């Protein structure tokens, strides 16, 4: 049998064993067709290793394993036990924090400090949903004295979970926590750019004691394994996080196969609004974090920055200084804030947008060029004097690039902020409570952060208005994506007709 693991090395962990197989039925196995693909280190552009590639045949095998578990062992498992497995997995993730974070930095390029925070959040999500497992309750509905009616929240079945590369482990946790807590089984396909950390988590899934087939992890390409999963006739639900373009394809695949349920968390072009009365230093810190955190590779990145005219010039000048202070470089250094973009493709796309912005006549306040000569690093880039018609103000760039424009009134900024096909997140910076709540009410976005930005939490629902998606992840709201209501109604009296 082809090898399903390899010895790798990071500066944090030294040598470690990295699984490279598909995780199906609690075992690592090679793909049926024997195909593998390379995983690139975005900091060095060198190959880290190769992992097995799932094709349609492997998707069939993984879905069959998940179906068998769903109809068998998992159905017989009590909600309390489901919760215990999840809590155990959260504990194991914390115990392996250094390893998981280091692999995330190696594979994705995110700084080790941020990767550690991600792993902490992953454990938080999984433990939180472990707590929900035995609190999924129905209702008794009194319609008249002769009937007894109750509802149950039943699992949907086999869930195909397709995740992106920007938060490989965190997206893994969002996609397994609520699905597993509510009694579903899962086949999760990681992004082809970042398959490594989820395979280590897969090993922990087995160690946590989950029965075989409950959580299966496959590595492969979107157009092959992802497409097969979203069109599969025996997958009951697909949950996807990624680009709006692919989100549409997934909906189409669901519609033309078995009308599987769909939840989508897609792109964004989120406005971050700074009023004249804001605490300017705090606002700059949050705007900086809002766009440059995770190298701008966040669906909720605050990429449209609107500053009220009274503080515009001062803001732009101070924000420039703040952005220049962000340390860009080797993700394994503890004070690095910004690592490389994830791939050559992403690097090229972002640099293309930067060229567009320059050509359109926006002012480069800082950045706009490659950082260093190796790896996919891009300087933190700020454009000012950006107008609404420019591509850099309209389209999701998914990189360390933000566009600043000036506004005068509250009415005007609500209109401008909503002038987007997206509606994922938004930010407001002001000391005036009335302004804050009025503007929050006016914004068409799934999340509004006031005097902060990018502060996601496992208890708080997250998701998009408009073309940013459908359904909510995190919090109690996510449970609705993974349950369906069964109404059971019983006649107590004699026949009616
Ligand atoms: P990006 O453009 O940032 O790489 P994508 O939306 O293409 O993001 O990818 C997110 C996830 O969707 C990845 O796991 C990828 O493999 C998967 N994917 C890409 N194309 C398809 C598709 N046609 N069907 C299903 N999944 C896909």
Automatic annotation (TrEMBL):
The active site is at 265. It holds the Pfam family Aldedh. Its EC number is 1.2.1.3. Gene3D superfamilies: Aldehyde Dehydrogenase, Chain A, domain 1 (3.40.605.10), Aldehyde Dehydrogenase, Chain A, domain 2 (3.40.309.10). GO terms for molecular function: aldehyde dehydrogenase (NAD+) activity. One of its GO terms (biological process) is acetate biosynthetic process. Residues 32-488 form the Aldehyde dehydrogenase domain. It catalyses: an aldehyde + NAD(+) + H2O = a carboxylate + NADH + 2 H(+). Pathway: Alcohol metabolism; ethanol degradation; acetate from ethanol: step 2/2. The keyword Zinc does not apply. This is Aldehyde dehydrogenase. One of its GO terms (cellular component) is mitochondrion. It comes from Amorphotheca resinae ATCC 22711. Coiled coil: none annotated. PANTHER family: ALDEHYDE DEHYDROGENASE-RELATED (PTHR11699). The keyword Transport does not apply.
């Amino acid at each position: 049998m082809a090898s399903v693991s390899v010895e790798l090395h990071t500066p944090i962990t030294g040598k470690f064993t990295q699984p490279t197989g598909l995780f199906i039925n609690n075992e690592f196995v090679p793909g049926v067709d024997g195909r593998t693909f390379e995983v690139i280190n975005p900091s060095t552009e060198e190959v880290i290793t190769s992992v097995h590639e799932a094709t349609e045949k492997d998707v069939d095998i993984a879905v069959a394993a998940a179906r068998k578990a769903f109809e068998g062992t998992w159905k017989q498992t009590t909600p309390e036990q489901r919760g215990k497995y999840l809590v155990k997995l959260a504990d194991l993730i914390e115990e392996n924090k250094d390893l998981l974070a280091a692999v995330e930095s190696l594979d994705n390029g995110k700084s080790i400090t941020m990767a550690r925070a991600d792993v902490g959040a992953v454990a938080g999500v999984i433990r939180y949903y472990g707590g929900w497992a035995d609190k999924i309750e129905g209702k008794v509905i009194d319609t008249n004295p002769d009937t007894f009616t109750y509802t149950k929240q039943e699992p949907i079945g086999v869930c195909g979970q397709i995740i992106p590369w920007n938060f490989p482990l965190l997206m893994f946790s969002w996609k397994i926590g609520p699905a597993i807590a509510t009694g579903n089984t899962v086949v999760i396909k990681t992004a082809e750019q970042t398959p490594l950390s989820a395979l280590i988590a897969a090993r922990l899934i087995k160690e946590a004691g989950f029965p075989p087939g409950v959580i299966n992890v496959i590595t492969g390409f979107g157009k092959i394994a992802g497409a097969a999963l979203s069109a599969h006739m025996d997958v009951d639900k697909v949950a996807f996080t990624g680009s709006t373009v692919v989100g549409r394809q997934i909906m189409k695949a669901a519609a033309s196969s078995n009308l599987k349920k769909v939840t989508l968390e897609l792109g964004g072009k989120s406005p971050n609004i700074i009023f004249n009365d804001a605490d300017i230093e705090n606002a700059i810190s949050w705007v900086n974090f809002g766009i440059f955190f995770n190298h701008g590779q966040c669906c909720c990145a605050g990429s449209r920055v609107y500053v009220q005219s009274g503080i515009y010039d001062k803001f732009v000048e101070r924000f420039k200084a703040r952005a220049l202070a962000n340390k860009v470089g080797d993700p394994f250094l503890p004070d690095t804030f910004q690592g490389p973009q994830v791939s050559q493709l992403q690097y090229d796309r972002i640099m293309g947008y930067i060229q567009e912005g320059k050509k359109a006549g926006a002012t480069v306040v800082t950045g706009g060029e490659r950082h260093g000569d190796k790896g996919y690093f891009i300087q933190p880039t700020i454009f000012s004097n950006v107008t609404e018609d420019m591509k850099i103000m309209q389209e999701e760039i998914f990189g360390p690039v933000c566009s600043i424009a000036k506004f005068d009134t509250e009415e005007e900024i609500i209109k401008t902020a909503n002038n987007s096909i997206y509606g994922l997140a938004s930010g407001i910076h002001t000391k005036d409570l009335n302004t804050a709540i009025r503007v929050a009410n006016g914004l068409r976005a799934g999340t509004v952060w006031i005097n902060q930005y990018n502060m996601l939490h496992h208890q708080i629902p997250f998701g998009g208005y408009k073309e940013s998606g459908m359904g909510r992840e995190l919090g109690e709201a996510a449970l609705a994506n993974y349950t369906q209501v069964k109404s059971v109604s019983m006649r107590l009296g004699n026949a009616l007709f």
